[in-house]
Amino acid sequence: MSQRDAVxxxxxxxxxxxxxxxxxxxMTVRPDMLNGVSTCHGGISYALAxxxxxxxxxxxxxxxxxxxxxxxYPAAAQLGDRLSAECREIHLKGxxxxxxxxxxxxxxxxxxxxxxxxxTLPGSIVEGNE
Length: 130
Prior knowledge:
The protein has 130 residues and is α+β, with helices and mostly antiparallel strands. It has helices at 6-10, 42-57; strands at residues 14-19, 22-28, 62-72, 82-93, 96-104, 110-124. Strands 1-2-4-5-6-3 form a 6-stranded antiparallel β-sheet, covered by helices on one side. The model has no long low-confidence stretch (mean pLDDT 94).
């Protein structure tokens, strides 16, 4: 999955750990990721959280996509911050899953809180495992 994810490569995201219902990803805030007030653009934090969510909800091997997502930004990430997005499965029943993702900087400051609901589709993440 990570080999096909062009966005995570574009943003230099690193997949640190994936386990069933869990993912941990990280990236560093670059100058081209800043908004008009010189803090990390919210879309960048969102992309990191959303990608961790994608890895967590697809970790069971079935194709899963986002059905809905929300995010809050309790603090702003800054240039040079090393962000980590830790995503955990909260509930999984049938084709629907619920995941919480916390994005923190290198000092443990929470910069984003993301909740995603997934929907499983027919098929497998690994070709040939349908």
